[in-house]
């Protein structure tokens, strides 16, 4: 199922997976009846068996290669430029210097950027959907003499929600990290905290709806942060792609790569709200925005997109008196 998913640039649907399983079963049955049984009846030599094995393996390899080669590692943009998938998939600096905390860890490092000697400080707080705004905020901080402190952790959104535990993720680690991050924010007393989170996680069935679950987490976050900073700015979640954008574009699917789903922008708690949806979408949400590939995967905006949106974010911060 990996090869078709790579070819289409998106996860396979349940129907497509079922169809592939059925085709695989059919191929196995036909192979057994028309290849394995006849070979068994003829009692071929070891040399013949080896030759057939080599031909079969080579055929599979050629098929896999043809599928992979049909997808380019270069994405062509409408402005005549091109960009490699590797460049689009680059992650923000906080992933490279270990400031984006991983599963099992509960404490962020110093993680200070921008003008480190400045008396004006802003804090970025939340999960990877907060960290996706780091490139924009680092540029803004450098340009405006702000100190930027980044406090982000994988799969731990700023809204204090309890999630369905999957794999290495543990709710206890998330809540411990949040407690430590909020303590750090209290010590800093920043000019602003910008917080965000991915709102499409699986939620416990004890909640009547995703909206109730998320709103409760937002309110708890506000209660814990209220009074710790001059401004609390909640960045609502970015539109959610329905496929892996770089691979989709590289496969030549074009406009089929558009159509990311807009995230609900309702916020509970007396936050100042920034909704970036209009920066990324018009009537629909294109995969390429103003000549920039919007997403680095099937979830996060790309580093280039974050940097391209820095002027809009800067204007918002100026309007709010942060700059």
What does this molecule look like?
With 323 residues, the chain is α/β, with parallel strands linked by helices. It has two domains: 2-70, no CATH class; 83-319, SGNH hydrolase (Rossmann fold, 3-Layer(aba) Sandwich). It is 44% helix and 12% strand. It contains 13 helices and eleven strands. It has helices at residues 2-8, 14-42, 46-69, 85-88, 93-96, 128-131, 134-144, 171-188, 210-225, 245-250, 277-280, 303-308, 310-319; strands spanning 74-76, 82-84, 100-101, 112-114, 121-126, 147-153, 192-196, 232-235, 272-274, 288-289, 292-293.
Write the SSE topology.
Layout: H1 2-8, H2 14-42, H3 46-69, E1 74-76, E2 82-84, H4 85-88, H5 93-96, E3 100-101, E4 112-114, E5 121-126, H6 128-131, H7 134-144, E6 147-153, H8 171-188, E7 192-196, H9 210-225, E8 232-235, H10 245-250, E9 272-274, H11 277-280, E10 288-289, E11 292-293, H12 303-308, H13 310-319
Parallel strand pairs: 3-6, 5-6, 5-7, 7-8, 8-9
Antiparallel strand pairs: 1-2, 4-6, 10-11
InterPro entries: SGNH
Pfam families: SGNH
Keywords: Membrane, Transmembrane, Transmembrane helix
Write a brief caption for the model.
The chain is of the alpha/beta class. The chain is built from 13 helices and eleven strands. Strands 3, 4, 5, 6, 7, 8 and 9 form a seven-stranded mixed beta sheet that branches. A two-stranded antiparallel ribbon has the order 1-2.
Report the span from N to C terminus.
50 Å
CATH architecture of the largest domain: 3-Layer(aba) Sandwich
Radius of gyration: 24 Å
What gross morphology would you assign?
Answer: elongated
Sheet/helix structural class: alpha/beta
Could you tell me the CATH topology label of the largest domain.
Rossmann fold
Strand proportion, as a percent range, falls in 5-15%
On the 0 to 100 scale, the average pLDDT is: 89
Helicity range: 40-55%
Q: What's the CATH C level of the largest domain?
A: Alpha Beta
Low-confidence stretches: 5-10
Number of domains: 2
Instruction: Characterize the largest beta sheet: strand count, sense, and whether it forms a barrel.
Output: 7 strands, mixed
Quaternary structure annotation: single chain
CATH superfamily of the largest domain: SGNH hydrolase
Got a strand count? 11
Keywords: Membrane, Transmembrane, Transmembrane helix
InterPro entries: SGNH (IPR043968)
């Amino acid at each position: 199922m990996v090869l078709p998913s790579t070819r289409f640039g998106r996860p396979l649907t349940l129907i497509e997976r079922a169809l592939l399983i059925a085709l695989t079963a059919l191929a196995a049955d036909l192979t057994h009846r028309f290849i394995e049984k006849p070979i068994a009846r003829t009692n071929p030599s070891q040399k013949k068996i080896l030759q057939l094995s080599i031909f079969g393996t080579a055929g599979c390899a050629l098929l896999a290669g043809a599928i992979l080669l049909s997808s380019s590692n270069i994405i062509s943009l409408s402005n005549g430029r091109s960009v490699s998938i590797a460049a689009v998939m680059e992650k923000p600096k906080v992933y490279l210097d270990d400031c984006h905390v991983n599963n099992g860890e509960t404490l962020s490092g110093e993680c200070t950027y921008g003008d480190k000697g400045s008396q004006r400080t802003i804090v970025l707080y939340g999960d990877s959907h907060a960290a996706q705004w780091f490139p924009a905020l680092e540029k803004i901080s450098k340009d405006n003499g702000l100190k930027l402190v980044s406090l982000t952790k994988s799969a731990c959104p700023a809204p204090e929600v309890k999630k369905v535990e999957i794999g290495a993720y543990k709710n206890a680690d998330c809540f411990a990290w949040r407690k430590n991050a909020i303590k750090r924010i209290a010590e800093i007393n920043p000019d602003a905290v910008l917080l965000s989170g991915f709102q499409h996680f699986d939620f416990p069935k004890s909640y009547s709806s995703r909206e109730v679950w998320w709103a409760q987490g937002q309110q708890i976050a506000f209660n814990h942060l209220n009074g710790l900073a001059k401004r609390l700015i909640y960045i609502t979640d970015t539109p959610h792609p329905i496929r892996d954008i770089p691979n989709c574009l590289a496969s030549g699917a074009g406009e089929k790569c558009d159509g990311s789903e807009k995230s609900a922008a309702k916020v509970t708690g007396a936050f100042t709200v920034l909704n970036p949806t209009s920066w990324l979408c018009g009537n629909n949400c294109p995969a390429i925005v103003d000549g920039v590939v919007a997403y680095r995967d099937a979830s996060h905006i790309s580093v280039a997109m974050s940097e391209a949106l820095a002027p809009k974010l800067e204007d918002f911060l100026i309007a709010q008196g942060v700059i």
